[in-house]
From TrEMBL:
Statement: the UniProt record of this protein carries the keyword NAD: yes
Functional pathway: Amino-acid biosynthesis; L-histidine biosynthesis; L-histidine from 5-phospho-alpha-D-ribose 1-diphosphate: step 2/9; Amino-acid biosynthesis; L-histidine biosynthesis; L-histidine from 5-phospho-alpha-D-ribose 1-diphosphate: step 9/9; Amino-acid biosynthesis; L-histidine biosynthesis; L-histidine from 5-phospho-alpha-D-ribose 1-diphosphate: step 3/9
Protein name per the record: Histidine biosynthesis trifunctional protein
PROSITE patterns: HISOL_DEHYDROGENASE
Domain Phosphoribosyl-AMP cyclohydrolase: residue ranges: 230-301
UniProt keyword annotations, A-Z: Amino-acid biosynthesis, ATP-binding, Histidine biosynthesis, Hydrolase, Metal-binding, Multifunctional enzyme, NAD, Nucleotide-binding, Oxidoreductase, Zinc
CDD domains (UniProt xref): Histidinol_dh (cd06572), NTP-PPase_His4 (cd11546)
Annotated organism of origin: Aspergillus candidus
Length: 871
């Protein structure tokens, strides 16, 4: 059961910054399971639901919606419940497919309450409808008795016309009602500096303390509802769990217990709720590491079984399946997996006995789940989709599709002619890979802005909560801690040292002549381009007034740490993009860090690049542990002064943590996020070129985003690009990743170049590709971008590898504030002042006056003493 309140947000307002004191963000609201959004149009509701339904149960205040069909569509889109008026209720009654438990009726006054009662009396199932009032005098216990409903069903709601108070909320909770609270009235900060209502206090108020220890019994379950263990909670632990977004409980022996702080088996908090009668808290978490149990098992009640166990096995195999093994083939050869799914589905259909059906279904589940894991899809994602399908109130007929029906002799009902829907409303054909299309001229600006948003990332608080213990462990434990995490996360259990030192053995750099030649050409071009940047860093000296000489000169940063990601692709290109500028700048110590393979080795391409740039060592670790090792130094890992390089959210969080720790004495290049590209194409663009550029970034990861801005293209031209995207995507070995990326990617159809550039500058892409007429002339209009690729013959790939420009670029909109990595990233600028006696005399009165204004007498005297000495 949910907490006894729902947080309300305004969909027209931008999401709050996590550090804001203005209320709860949507990521924080998700901890309470439900959100209420007041909508004015069906499109607004559907867009909000589409973006947030996978992390929240969305309730929609649809009282402003006039068309009954729109109300049904909002429910069909996945709204858990809708708030409606009595008039809307009467109209909806004609829709026999709308269940009463999806409706919450707002009423005002006794007449409307009696009308609602009459409606309920006509059908017993209508008792499941909810009722909402804004009258603070209504007593819910009496109202529930009058309606004949149980308060435990949470079917009575209260909204507030005046500012909500904690006292009023507690009274509603006591009466068994559900309060609607604006997001800006709540905080997760126990200190409550802004005078808001502390959300954790409302949770604690609803919970029931045990009589013997004053704590709250708490059940911990995973996203699939599997019980992981039983623990205790306190007011403080509930507050900390919500603040950090992690599993925090109350140990009866040790006090506040941050789960996994010492073991690394941390928990990401998904939501907090109750059991049916609220005498037990329920924490829903994503368990990281070995499991919840102190014995290293998934659950205190034993290991996972069935599909949960299979999923864990497949996820582990995906990370470290030996090359050439059958499981590795399934992950790397989509057509093999597709063939096995079709084979097992056919065998399941042919099975006759219960034993055969169970056996063949198990095989089909195995290969289907392998397909899901390969695409980054979890059982939780599948089950969430099943739940969403269950929310539909308008059902398809469920007829078999043409070829399959024909093959098995299934009679299909005659099709009823219907007008063809608009292109945007057609669901994609089975198996077709395509992007959402938005025509800006007919789309509200708020919806366009929503489509420009990047895919949601995990709550920063939750990520930091996971990363901080790892950073601290490496800082305290040195090499042993680095090895522990490398053994755990990379499965490289044979490693006995976390460092590979130069000179690197030739045996670790065995490359084909073609690969070595390609690396050499790329290194040479990158060196040329970054060497040419030295002109902007030459020493500067000038006399600002007689006898006052000011100078600026540059020096290389002495020690730099370069993070080279591992994961789904080997990235020697990143080693070149970071290592070559460091070499050109003259950095004395270059340290690379990259996750090793399961056998403890590093790709020979990365070792070769490290050799070419004169690296001192390679840290055999990834993630937060590698960042911490370079920031603080260990027995074997050299401490560095600056850390550069891209990485996932955990790497970025670790970089931010160490950069903010003054004792580390280390800086970073920039925040980083998933890869992205924005392509602007006009009628002159080649559809095949456009599609290839979009897919070149989509294959980086399912969280990558690609944007196409099409300038005044007609339907045939748009269709040509979409066809190319689909055909080329299906030919790629990383098709599953591409499909996941394109699911949240967008084509904007705009009127002209000015609108296209305005959208691009608003988005601030990592990569901007101009496939337009007079592309060079358009560069003047670029205000925000990491790197620009000009014209039809400049694919983004050349920048990734060999042209000479750097591919370590700001993502996630940071191109508005940051530059990409360049020679200056590895230099520091030092200024100097050199005054003669006459120069000091000429400047003395000015300095003394300003020092006096600021009240800094010693500053003033440092000048006056010298001037007096001259006389």
């Amino acid at each position: 059961m949910s907490v006894p309140f729902i947080v309300q947000v305004d969909p027209s307002q931008p999401p709050l910054d996590p550090a804001s004191a203005n209320g709860l963000t949507l990521n924080q609201i998700a901890y309470f399971g439900r959100v209420l959004v007041k909508v004015d149009t069906r499109e607004q509701a559907e867009e909000f639901i589409r973006r947030h339904v996978r992390s929240l149960d969305v309730y929609a205040d649809a009282t402003a919606i006039r068309q009954t069909a729109d109300l049904v569509d909002i429910l069909n889109a996945g709204a858990a419940k809708i708030f409606i008026t009595l008039g809307q209720l009467q109209a909806l009654t004609q829709e026999q497919s709308v269940p009463a438990d999806r409706l919450i009726v707002k009423y005002a006054g006794q007449d409307e309450l009696e009308a609602f009662q009459r409606w309920v009396s006509e059908d017993a199932s209508r008792k499941e409808a909810g009722l909402s009032t804004n009258d603070p005098q209504v007593e819910f216990t009496a109202l529930a008795e009058k309606l004949g409903v149980s308060l435990e069903t949470q079917s009575l709601y209260r909204t507030y016309t005046s500012p909500v108070t904690e006292e009023g909320l507690r009274e509603t909770i006591t009466q068994g009602g559900v309060s609607i609270i604006p997001a800006d009235a709540l905080t997760l900060d126990q200190r409550n500096p802004a005078g808001k209502i502390v959300a954790s206090a409302l949770v604690s108020f609803r919970a029931v303390r045990t009589s013997d220890n004053g704590l709250y019994a708490t059940t911990v379950v995973d996203a699939r509802g599997v019980c992981l263990g039983l623990v205790w909670s306190s007011d403080e632990s509930i507050s900390e769990a919500l603040r950090t977004g992690t599993g925090v409980y109350q140990s009866r022996k040790r006090g506040l217990w941050y789960k996994g702080q010492s073991s690394g088996d941390v928990q990401e908090l998904i939501s907090v709720g109750f059991d049916c009668d609220s005498d037990c808290l329920v924490f829903v978490v994503n368990q990281v590491g070995r499991g919840f149990c102190h014995l290293g098992r998934a659950s205190c009640f034993g290991p996972y079984n069935g599909l949960s166990r299979l999923q864990k096995t497949l996820q582990a195999r995906k990370a470290d399946a030996p090359a050439g093994s059958y499981t590795a083939r399934l992950f790397n050869e989509p057509k093999l997996t597709q063939a096995k799914i079709m084979e097992e589905a056919d065998e399941l259909c042919r099975a006759t006995t219960p034993e055969e059906v169970a056996f063949e279904a198990a095989d089909l589940f195995y290969f289907a789940l392998t397909r899901c894991v390969a695409a980054g899809v979890s059982l939780e994602d599948v089950e969430r989709n099943l739940d969403l399908k269950n929310l539909k109130v308008k059902r398809r007929k469920g007829d078999a599709k043409g070829p399959w029906a024909e093959k098995l002799g299934v009679n299909q009902p005659a099709a009823t002619p219907a007008p063809a829907p608009a292109k945007e409303e057609q669901p994609p054909a089975d198996g077709r890979i395509e992007m959402t299309r938005v025509v800006t001229a007919s789309t509200p600006a708020t919806v366009v802005a929503d489509h420009l948003k990047r895919p949601s990332q995990k709550s920063n608080d939750a990520i930091v909560g996971l990363v901080r213990p790892i950073v601290q462990d490496v800082r305290d434990g040195g090499d042993a801690a680095v090895l522990k995490y490398t053994h755990k996360f990379e499965k490289a259990t044979s490693l006995t040292s976390p460092v590979l030192r130069a000179p690197f053995p030739e045996s670790l750099m065995q490359l084909s002549p073609e690969t070595q030649a390609a690396l050499d050409v790329s290194i040479d071009n990158i060196a040329k381009f970054h060497s040419a940047q030295q002109g902007g860093n030459e020493a500067l000296s000038m006399e600002t007034m007689p006898g006052v000489v000011c100078s600026r000169f540059s020096r290389p940063i002495e020690r730099v740490g370069l993070y080279i990601p591992g994961g789904t692709a080997v990235l020697p290109s990143t080693a070149m993009m970071l290592g070559v500028p460091a070499m050109v700048a003259g950095c004395q110590k270059i340290v690379l860090a990259s996750p090793p393979r399961a056998d403890g080795s590093v790709s020979p391409e990365i070792v070769y690049v490290a050799h070419k740039v004169g690296a001192e060592s390679i840290v055999l670790a990834g993630g937060a542990q590698a960042v911490a090792a370079m920031a603080y130094g260990t027995e074997s890992v050299s401490k560095v002064d600056k850390i550069l390089g891209p990485g996932n959210q955990f790497v970025t969080a670790a970089k931010m943590l160490v950069a903010n720790d003054t004792s580390a004495g280390v800086s970073i290049d920039m925040p980083a996020g998933p890869s992205e590209v924005l392509v602007i194409a006009d009628r002159q663009a080649n559809p095949a070129f456009v599609a290839s550029d979009l897919l070149s970034q989509a294959e980086h990861g399912v969280d990558s985003q690609v944007i196409l801005i099409a300038i005044d293209l007609d339907e045939a031209q748009l269709q040509a690009i979409e066809d190319e995207v689909d055909q080329q995507a299906h030919a790629l070995p990383r098709m599953d990743i591409v499909k996941g990326s394109l699911a949240h990617s967008v084509t904007f159809v705009v009127r002209d170049l000015a609108e296209a550039m305005a959208l691009s500058n608003q988005y601030a892409p990592e990569h901007l590709i101009l496939q337009i007429e007079n592309a060079e002339g358009a560069v003047e209009q670029v205000q925000n971008a990491g790197s620009v690729f000009i014209g039809a013959w400049t694919p983004e790939s050349v920048g990734d590898y060999s042209a000479g420009v750097n591919h370590s670029l700001p993502t996630y909109g940071y191109a508005k504030q940051y530059s990409g990595v360049n020679l200056g990233s590895f230099l520091k600028h030092i200024t100097s002042s050199n005054l003669t006696a006459e120069g000091l005399k000429g400047l003395a009165k000015t300095v003394e006056q300003l020092a006096g204004v600021e009240g800094l007498e010693a500053h003033k005297r440092a000048v006056s003493i010298r001037v007096a000495h001259m006389q």
